[in-house]
Amino acid sequence: MLKKQKIFCFTVSVIAFAVLVIFMAGCGQQAEIEKQKEIARIVIEEAWNKGNLDVLDEHYSQDYVYHHTPYPDIKGLDAYKKYIMDNRTNYPDIKLAIKDLVVEGNKVFMRGTYRGTQKGTSPTLGISTGKQVDFEWCSISHKADGKIVEDWGYIDWLGFMQQLGYKSMPPLTEKTFARVTLTKSNPGKTEEAIKIYQDSVVPDAKSQNGFRGVYLFSDFKTGKGISIAIWDSEEDAIANEQSGYYQKQIDRFKDIFTSTPIREGYVLTVQE
C-alpha cells in the first residue's frame, strides 16, 4: 500500500512539474508576443508620428527592405528613414494609428490608419494639393535574429488618390468620343464663366448617359476657353445634345460669351 502511495505521489509530482513547465513556457511566449507588440507601437509612435528615427536602429536590420507595391522596393535602413522623413515633410500633421496588431512566430501583422494634410510635393506622385487624406494600411513584418529585415505594405491607394483629387474612369475604347467646344468671352468674366461651369455644367453633365468626364482650359488674358467632354461614344454625345442639354448650358453663358461657341468632335485613336 505504501509503495502505491509513493508511486502516486511521484506521478502527481511529475504531472505538476510538467504543467508548471508548460505554464512557464506559455507565459514566456506571451511575454515575447507582448514585447513584439510594444516594439511595433514604439516604431509607429516614435519614428512615424514624432520623427525620432534613431529608434529604428535598435529594431531594424541595416539591410532592411520595404516592399510597397506598385512602387519599387526601398532597400536599406537609411533609405527607409528618408522615406519616413519625406512623408513627414509632405504631411507635417501626419498621424498613424494602429487598429489591429497580431504576432505569429517571427511575423508581425498590423492594420492601421494614416491621416495627414499634403503640404509638400509627393515624391511618388509629383504633386502638391493641400488636401487632407485619411486611409487604411496593412503591413506584415518579418523578423530574423531579433530585428525586422523586411516589410510588406498594403495601402488603399485608390482611396488615397481619390482624396487627393484623382478621378477613376472606365477603360477607353476605340468608340470613346470627345466633344470639344471652343469659346470666347470677355477676359474680365472668365472667373464667372468658370463658376457657372463648376456649379451648373458639370453637375448636369454627370446625369447624362455615356458621360465620362469633362475638362475646361481657360486663358485669363484673352478670355478663350476649351471645353473637352468625354463620352462613351459619339452616339451618346449626339443624343445628349439633341435632348436640349447642350443648348441649356449655352444659354447660361449668353451674357458672358462674346461669340458663338465652335463645336468639334474627335474619336480616340491613340492612348498611352
Describe the protein in words.
- This protein has 272 residues and is of the alpha+beta class.
- The chain folds into two domains: 27-164, Nuclear Transport Factor 2, Chain: A, CATH 3.10.450.50; 177-267, Alpha-Beta Plaits, CATH 3.30.70.
- The protein has helices at residues 2-49, 55-59, 77-90, 157-164, 190-205, 234-242, 245-251, and strands spanning 60-68, 71-75, 95-104, 107-117, 132-144, 147-155, 177-184, 211-218, 224-231, 262-267.
- The strands form two sheets. Strands 2-1-6-5-4-3 form a six-stranded mixed β-sheet, sandwiched between helices.
- 11% of the residues are buried.
Q: How is the secondary structure organized here?
A:
Elements: H1 2-49, H2 55-59, E1 60-68, E2 71-75, H3 77-90, E3 95-104, E4 107-117, E5 132-144, E6 147-155, H4 157-164, E7 177-184, H5 190-205, E8 211-218, E9 224-231, H6 234-242, H7 245-251, E10 262-267
Parallel strand pairs: 1-6
Antiparallel strand pairs: 1-2, 3-4, 4-5, 5-6, 7-9, 7-10, 8-9
Key terms for this structure?
single chain, 272 residues, alpha+beta, Nuclear Transport Factor 2, Chain: A, Alpha-Beta Plaits, six-stranded mixed sheet, four-stranded antiparallel sheet, 7 helices, elongated
